[in-house]
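User: two proteins, same treatment. go.

Assistant:
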Amino acid sequence: MIVETIPMWTDQQTLVHLRDVLELFPANNWRWKLDDCDGVGRFPAGVTWAEFQVAVEAGAAVFDWVGIQQFADGLDQMIDGRIVATDANDTVVVTIDVLDSTEYKIVIDPVRSDTAASASAVALFELSPAASASNTTTA
C-alpha cells in the first residue's frame, strides 16, 4: 500500500478542504462510504448533524463519485473521520483518514491500475500552492 499524508493547513494557514483531496482522484465508479465523520457544514439532503451521524453509524452514508464530491462541497471542514472507497467487487482501493484537523492520511492500493495515477497525483500534491508538504511511505 502507498501511504501519503497531506497537511490540512498550508504554510499560509489556509485550509486544505476535503474537496481539494478528492480532486486528486479521477472520476470513478467506486463506492465511497463514510465510516466515521465529524465535520462542520451542510449535510446531505438537509439533515442535521445528529441525523447524519445516525446514518454514518448505520453504514448508510454511501456515495458515488458525484455524491462524495457534493458531500465535500457542503462541508466547511471535516475535522475527523474515515472515508473508504471500494470497487464493484467490494475491494478497498482508497482510504482517507482525516486526523483531528491536522492532516489527511491517504492509503492507496498500488496494484490497481486505476489507482496508480491517483498515487502519483497525491504524491505531487505538495507541489501545488494548496499544500505545504506531503510525506510518502510504503506499507
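Protein 2:
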Amino acid sequence: MVNNILLNKWFFTFIVGWIVFFFLVDWKAIYKNFWGGIISCILELWQDSLAYTMGMYFFQEEGLTILNVSAFFTFGITVTMGILYIQFTPENPMLQILHLLAFTVGFVIFEYLVKYAGILITPYWNLAASFFNNTIIFGGLLWLNDFLKCRTEGHR
C-alpha cells in the first residue's frame, strides 16, 4: 500500500503543494489565513463531487478519496494554495483582480497538466469552464478575506 501511495501522481501534487506552502507561509498570520484553506476544501469538494455525480469529469489514480475526489488533491494543492491565496491578497482592488487572475490561470495550467498526465478525465468539461469556475471560487475567497478583515478590525 505504501508503494502505491508513493507512486500515486496525486500524492506527488500533495507533496509539491506542501513544499511550496512551507517555503511561503507566514506563520504569524496562519490563524487568520487558514480559513482560506478550509473554504477552498469545502468549495473544491462540492464542485468536484457534483461534477463527478453529473459525469462531467472524474479522477484516476485517486488513492484515498473523499466524495469521489482524491484526498491528496483536496488536502494538498487545494488547502495549501487556499491559505496562500488569502495570505498574499493585496489591499489594492486592482491588484486583487490581478491576484485573482494569476491564481485562476495557475489552477487552469495545473488542470491542463493533470489532464495531460491522465489523472483527470474530462468528457464533458473544458479549460474555459474551469477558468470561469475558478474565477468564481477565488472571487469568493476575496470576499472571505474582506469579511475576515472587517470582523477583526471591528473588534479592535
